[in-house]
Design a protein that fits this description.
Blueprint (H helix, E strand, L loop, with lengths): L4 H16 L4 H6 L5 E8 L3 E2 L3 H11 L4 E4 L6 E2 L4 E8 H31 L6 E3 L9 H10 L13 E3 L1 H7 L2 H9 L8 E5 L2 H10 L3 E5 L3 H14 L7 E5 L4 H8 L5 E3 L2 H4 L6 E5 L2
Parallel strand pairs: 6-11, 7-8, 8-9, 9-10, 10-11
Antiparallel strand pairs: 1-5, 1-12, 2-4, 3-5
Helix pairs in contact: 1-3, 1-4, 3-4, 4-5, 6-7, 7-8, 8-9
Length: about 280
């Protein structure tokens, strides 16, 4: 997965404009304009690195003469004390871009680390880890890139990527059969249809309606296992719908959910409440 540079630059420029405005009162008044410095990105915690190129791009946009030597690429497992990159450039630009670069690098590495941990917890079960649309405004593509960097998979990027009948859609239409019938009339042949279900009766309805993916929303493990058996018995061939578990899944319950036999486990916490990975930038004295 590669992020387009125009998107990355737009995010960075927005962050820089928010932080620098017109003047860095401290740096511009203290540091001579022609001064140059060297600095190091250092890991201060163990995790999965993500966003190194994005962090370095911050300084490239501020300083045409900026140079970097990278020692750890995205996806690398890092530990406290690891030197991730050495950089050199205009001192003012290094100081002005430091917070923006670290904000992005720490957050994306936190997302990648969380995804990697989740993937490790379900290893051997056949279930895959996916993100959701519960992302920070403007950072969705970056956050989803970080999930993939950590070994996870992406759910929808936006509402046009697929049709998903959630509880409110279903209730508004009067039930799953009615909702599926209404959308099937206009749904393009390239678009998959997913239906959110809250109990086994709704799973049966979604199965009979012939949807592509059935979401098991906030179900306990016995109910999810029963849904898996129901789908396998109804369609023992390869044409059965994928089953996606979602809702309130934590590190403590993740393995048990995966062992029910579901195909996908989507976790909003990978992006909406992740802990940033501790990384610092230290200028050489």
């Amino acid at each position: 997965m590669t992020l387009p540079l125009f998107y990355v630059d737009d995010v960075i420029k927005t962050a820089l404009q928010e932080d620098i405005s017109y003047l860095d009162t401290t740096t511009d008044l203290m540091i001579p304009a022609e001064t140059r410095a060297a600095a190091r990105f250092l890991a201060k915690a163990e995790g999965t690195l993500c966003g190194m190129d994005i962090a370095l791009r911050v300084f490239s946009l501020l300083d045409d003469s900026f140079q970097a030597r990278v020692y750890a690429a995205d996806g690398a497992r890092v530990k406290p004390g690891d030197i991730l990159a050495e950089v050199e450039g205009n001192t003012r630009c290094l100081l002005k871009g430091e917070r923006t670069a670290l904000n992005l690098l720490q957050h994306l590495s936190g997302v990648a680390t969380a995804a990697a941990r989740a993937v490790a917890l379900v290893e051997g079960t056949g279930a895959s880890i996916a993100d959701t649309r519960k992302t920070l405004p403007g950072l969705r593509a970056m956050q989803k890139y970080a999930v993939v960097t950590g070994g996870g998979r992406n759910h929808r990027f936006n509402l046009s990527d697929g049709a998903m009948l959630k509880d409110n859609h279903i209730d508004a239409a009067g039930g799953i059969p009615q909702a599926v019938a209404l959308i099937r009339q206009k749904l393009g042949h390239m678009i998959k249809l997913e239906v959110e279900t809250r109990n086994l009766d709704e799973v049966r309805q979604a199965l009979e309606a012939g949807v592509d993916v059935i979401m098991l929303d906030n179900m306990d493990c016995p109910a999810m296992a029963a849904a898996v058996r129901l789908c396998r018995e109804a369609r023992p061939d390869a044409g059965r719908p994928l089953l996606e578990a979602s809702g309130g899944i934590t590190a403590d319950t993740l393995r048990a959910v995966a062992e029910t036999g579901v195909d996908i486990i989507s976790i909003g916490a990978l992006t909406h409440s992740v802990t940033a990975l501790d990384i610092s930038l230290k200028i050489a004295k």
